[in-house]
Each structure stands twice: as C-alpha cells, then as structure tokens.
Amino acid sequence: MELAEIGLVGLGVMGSNLALNIAEHGHRIAVWNRELPRLPEFIRDAGDLAQHIIPTETIEQLIAAIKPPRAVILMIPAGAAVDEQIGILKPLLGEGGLIIDAGNSDFRDTVRRVKELEGSGVTLVGMGVSGGEEGARHGPSMMAGGERSAFARIERIIMDIAARTKDGEPCAAWLGPDGAGHFVKTIHNGIEYADMQMIAEIYGAFRDGAGLKPAETAEIFKDWNTRELDSYLIEITARVLSAVDKETEKPIVDIILDRAGQKGTGLWSAVEAERLGRPASVIEAAVGARVLSSLKDEREAAEKAYGLGKPEAGAFTKNDAQLLEHALLAGKVVAYAQGFAVLAMASRMFDWNLPLPTVARIWRAGCIIRSQFLGTIAAAFEGPKVDNLLMTPAFIDIMKRSHGALREVVARAAQAGLPMPALSSALAYFDSYRQGRGTTDLIQAQRDFFGAHGFERIDQPGAHHGIWGISEMPATPTPGEKA
Ligand SMILES: NC(=O)C1=CN([C@@H]2O[C@H](COP(=O)(O)OP(=O)(O)OC[C@H]3O[C@@H](n4cnc5c(N)ncnc54)[C@H](OP(=O)(O)O)[C@@H]3O)[C@@H](O)[C@H]2O)C=CC1
Ligand SMILES: O=C(CO)[C@H](O)[C@H](O)COP(=O)(O)O
C-alpha cells in the first residue's frame, strides 16, 4: 500500500472537509476518527476522492499508514482533547514526528505544549484555520506558528489547499514561533465577533428603528456589499436576511432565538488585549453582548419592569441607509485598529516579530472576516511604521469622513433606547484616542488621595503627592448652614 503524506485525527465539520481538500489536491492522506461509525460514512461521501484517502480504525493503524517522518493534523476541540491526543501520539510518532494542532487552541496552551515537547523528538505546529465548513473544503485561511523548519515540512500541502486571493496569492503563512499562529487566529475571531455584533446593531436600527422587514434590510446589505464594506460577513448577512423558514414561511431570522453561543476565542481576545495594555473595547463589547443575550429570561423580566426604550418611528428610516453604512465603516475601522494594535503589542511582548502586512494579506480570502478592506490594511502597514492603524493616512481619511455618521447613529440610537454596545464603544475609543488631554488627571488625583499612589505633573519631572489631608480641606457645611 502506498503510504500517506500526512494523517488527520477528527472527522468532524472541519476535519472531514480539510481531509477532502487535501485529497482533492492529490495529496494522499490517512484519517482516523474516535467514533468509528463516522469513518465509513466519510469514505462514502468522499466519492472519487476516496482513492487518495486511507481510512484507519485505530490510532496505531493511522500512524502505520503515514510515511515517516510522520505528520498528523489534529482537527478536534481545543483544550483537554488536544492534550490527550498529543499524549497518545507522542510515543507512536517517535523521532521526527510532527503534530499540527489546527483547532482553535488557546495560544497559551500551544506555548506550553511546544515547551513540553522539547527534546521528545516530536514537534508541534499550532495553526489557526478559518473559513468554516466551506473554507475548509475549498480553501481556508491558515495562520501557522511553531518552528519555521517544522512548518516547511508541510508547507507545500498547506499552500496547495489554502484560499487564494484574486491575484492568486495563497492565504496561509508561517507567522512566528510557538503560539504566534493561534494568537493571530484568536484575534481574527475577536475581530469576527466585533464585525458580527456591529452588523447586528445596524440590523437592529433597520428592524426596530425604521420598521424594515428582513428582506428590505437584505437589499440594503446587498447594495453595501458593492462598496467599501464589501466582505463575506456583509454578503452572508444579506443572504441570511432574505432566507425564509420552510415550516412557517416567515423570515428565518424572525424565528431564531436571540441567544448567541460562543466557544471562547472572543473572550480570550478581550482578555489578552487588556493583559497587553492594548484594550480592544469593541471586541469586549461584542463578547459582553453575546453574554447578555444568553440571559434571555432576565432580559424579558427587565423589559416587563422597565418597558422598552422608545424606538419611535423615525429614529431611523430607510433613507438613513447611507448614514448607517458610514457608521458601520467607522466602527469597523476602530475594531480592526484595536485588533492590529493587540497583535503589534503581542509581537513585541512575546518576541514573535509578527509580519502585520502578511497577517492582513492572508485574511483577504478564505477566512470569515475576509474583505477588500483587508487589502487597504495590508497596504497601510506597508507604509511608515505606526502604533495604530488609526494613524495611517488611508485610515485618517476614512475616519475623517465617517466618524460623524457613527456619532449621529450612536446618538440617535441612545435617544431611542436602541442598544448599540459595539458601535458606541468604537465611538468612545475613537474620541478617547484622539483626545490629547483626557480626564485621567482626576483619576490620578483620586488615587493619590485615597492611596498615596503619587502622580506626575505636566510642568515638573518626577513623582508628586497632593496635599489632601483632612485638616487642609475646607470644612463641608452641614445642610442648611452657610459655607
Ligand atoms: N466549525 C467551524 O466553523 C470552525 C471550527 N474550528 C475549530 O476546529 C476544531 C474542530 O471543530 P469542528 O470540526 O467544528 O468540531 P466537530 O464537533 O464537528 O468535530 C469534532 C471532532 O473532534 C473529535 N474529537 C472530539 N473530542 C476528541 C478527543 N478527545 N479525541 C479525539 N477526537 C476527538 C470528534 O470525534 P467524534 O466523532 O468521535 O466525537 C470530531 O471528529 C475546533 O477546535 C474548532 O474550534 C476552526 C475554524 C472554524
Ligand atoms: O473559528 C471560527 C471561524 O473563524 C469558528 O467559526 C468559531 O468556532 C466561531 O466561534 P464562536 O463559536 O465562538 O462564535
């Protein structure tokens, strides 16, 4: 039997499609799944591609079916399952073994696993894969981290199966050592959360502020997809909004429960951003919005207690489509600026030397946040080095012409009681970021008052303290008494 070039564990949604993609590119692959009944089903569905696939029933058979030195892709849930499989594979793979963890692992786990495997003869590549089911099957975006030489061993297969941009560039790259690939994938997902939340808020403006039907909103999103907002998420939003439920013949969004799920990458993005001192407030707002959405019973009780806000007819109208388009664009710029600022800081902190233009380039196709906008970001990062995307000439131009719309939309939504947590936080970040003198002078004074934490002065170097002692404070008059 001709041995396989590579093996794969986990024939779920992503693993089975990735295996078919690999087979379609003529690479022989051996596969194994924990639950055996999945195997014949997968081979049956593979059709002609089955000739490039070796189905195996035990992990030992899987290893025996791969050409040494052996490489195995794990496409299984992040966390304990990955540790368990690495534990099983390590002795079986032996010297020169390579494990590619292609799930959404926490980069901290990847860093730990790389260390734990040191000296064992087995190497780990942590590789984020984005694009969902369709991407995995026909071309995902892939973000790899680990030893450069280890990635080189699978580079040909990865480049063959990756998505390609219109100009033919593969959307996959080695981005840095140990956890770099999984970190970039985490931030990708954080941005995905922010994008999705802001789109949902704009949908809310059309539904609750303007009284539009889903199909009418779908037409507007379809139109937006021909301009600056052109992206996969806008495209699928238009398709989702025009979809009808077969059973009820109602728009499908109207019968879906408003309770969002999440598996962790959005939360990790927000937490890592704060840890790195580069807050990603739009991502945080998006995570918070999903959490709040899950408290359905509490929200219903609160609606009974307070009543709804007053999304009076006219808070928005169909004629505000352009205003809302520009507001979404401004919010998107801020969310991406925050995400890339986190990547830049992580690169510095962990010594990864992340190539930010490459990150933007490999997100242009294949992944969930793919868009033409990422081409503009890649070009912006190729110019003079800046700390924040908001300081590049291209994005200064976009923000100058669109932040007014964001302000108008957030203000009108606030007046009408329409929640816009992500768009509001994008505006707040923008206004805080561009304010040369903020209001934390007062916070520093308060900290010094209650904890003698000290403060810097604008006119003298060094650390200083205020004279806050009770005896120096003017007495507080009692009510009715003259000061
Ligand atoms: N779905 C998506 O759009 C995307 C998912 N991902 C990530 O890819 C990974 C896989 O996701 P997805 O394919 O959606 O998940 P699925 O639930 O569809 O499949 C999970 C697979 O993992 C296997 N598995 C679970 N636990 C173990 C274990 N302890 N040991 C061995 N195999 C195990 C399952 O086998 P069994 O049949 O025996 O249960 C199954 O084959 C996750 O990390 C996910 O976050 C990344 C990008 C997109
Ligand atoms: O990685 C992905 C896309 O890039 C997955 O679709 C991800 O699992 C979605 O995350 P969540 O379930 O938390 O919404």
Automatic annotation (TrEMBL):
Protein's recorded name: 6-phosphogluconate dehydrogenase, decarboxylating
Entry's EC annotation: 1.1.1.44
Gene: gndA
Family label: Belongs to the 6-phosphogluconate dehydrogenase family.
Keywords in alphabetical order: Gluconate utilization, NADP, Oxidoreductase, Pentose shunt
Pathway membership, UniProt: Carbohydrate degradation; pentose phosphate pathway; D-ribulose 5-phosphate from D-glucose 6-phosphate (oxidative stage): step 3/3
Native source species: Mesorhizobium liriopis
Major enzyme class: oxidoreductase
Protein role: Catalyzes the oxidative decarboxylation of 6-phosphogluconate to ribulose 5-phosphate and CO(2), with concomitant reduction of NADP to NADPH.
Keyword Oxidoreductase: yes
Cited PROSITE patterns: 6PGD
Ranges where the 6-phosphogluconate dehydrogenase C-terminal domain occurs: 181-469
A Gene Ontology molecular function term of the record: phosphogluconate dehydrogenase (decarboxylating) activity
Quaternary structure and partners: Homodimer.
UniProt catalytic activity: 6-phospho-D-gluconate + NADP(+) = D-ribulose 5-phosphate + CO2 + NADPH
Cell inner membrane recorded as keyword: no
Record InterPro entries: 6-PGluconate_DH-like_C_sf, 6PGD_dom2, 6PGDH_C, 6PGDH_Gnd/GntZ, 6PGDH_NADP-bd, 6PGdom_BS, NAD(P)-bd_dom_sf, Pgluconate_DH
